[in-house]
Design a protein that fits this description.
mainly alpha, 1% strand, globular
Length: 502
Amino acid sequence: MIDLLVQASEMLLRLDVVAMIAAGLMLGMLVGALPGFTTVMAMAIVLPISFFLEPILGIPFLIGVYKGGIFGGSIPAILVNIPGTGASVATTLDGPAMTRKGESRKALEIALVASAVADFLSSFGTILIIGIIAAIALLIGPPEIAAILILSLLIIVVSSSSSFLKGMVMLLIGMFLAMIGQDPIGAMVRFDFGFHPLQAGIHLLPLIIGLFAIPEILVAMEKRKSGLPENASSQAVGERLRWRELKKCMRTILRSTALGGMIGMIPGVGQVVAAFMGYSAAKNASKDPSKFGKGEIEGVAAPEAANNAVNGPTMVPLLTLGIPGDNVTAIMLGAFVAQGLRPGPQLFQEQGALVYSLLLSMLIACVLLLVIGYLMTPVFARIVSINRAYLLPLMLLFAVAGTYVYRSNPLDLYFMVGFGIFGYACRKLALDVTPLVMGFILLPPLEYAVGQSTLLARGDLIGYLVESRPITVAVLVFSPFLIYWIARRQRRLGGSITEQAR
């Protein structure tokens, strides 16, 4: 591992790598600071840019957009009580109250420091453990991979914002779309409906841009105004963060970092859950919980540390098993695949130095986040009041151009428009598209693993699993109990989130 880290460090000692990370951070902060424009939308639109760069430039650029966007969402959450991203919803519980007290600068600075520290620590922890997890993953075979993929899909369904039934329907739609084209075992063409271009299947890029970017643009087009409250301030005012105040928040930041790091390794849970859990833990540990909700500085530090601590550990299931933990890592998976890198345990054997260089780039991004955030937060604070309508034509142009230039296939544009309309309808019907995307991404490796397991079983699948694959049997047996426990926790957490939001 030491040799790989040394090689990875040498790969990162390039000015253009640092410049791409910084560009991604600034773009992410810009989008995060605009209420209604999500980090997922930004990453979906700029994803094609990474295709034309070498991996050591393109993927760190996306990492910068990711980290910058999650922090950037705290800016409008604190200043105007409108979360820039879903991850910043919990920040609205104390951030706006600090602004009303004339402490908006202090609130923004504690959000920045908590975000950068938590992200750095969780990313550092990810680097320490990911090699061990990848080594363990190399020991498992197709039956175990199939069982883990099934469990992951079920966790994503029960963790989605829709009901279990709606989530399952969306998952099945995604799996059906993934089956269009050639099957991964026998290369037999299926579900092409006599339309020859469908024999190559549906590409991931138009699906991602269509489902994540186009609905956001259409929803923004419905609103002519910026949606900001009257007399809203877009300036950071008041005293700066003091050392004693930061020292007071460090225990809260470390606690939220631990919570966010553990949540980040669980597929389908994400920043919103981590932020509210971090906030609840800080409130319960406080000597005076009544201060929370009234402008308590720890009430800003806790959710911002927790939601940013998720960023690094989400790469663990992605890189070791090829399982994206959320929408952002699903987009990351598209970037890896487009670069000819298939995430999984074999990737550490074949491209170990490159993988660790990408992981180390997360640490660089955290340091740059602190520097750029400190210098540019006052600028991005003024961007909060910009009317989104001015940026919509540019967003739409990037979406169309990005979809077309990768393969220069006009059919991709039709798919993008079709998925965009479908995604917009899902927004109106309160349907979460995450299970659909995950089903589309994970079905091919699941189908391949099941096919290999069937061949190894030689006609006696149950006997083969019972006699030779006890881990697979254990995962399948305990999956229903784990899913039930997660579903109960999800319902309880949903209730507590609603109460806190009130």
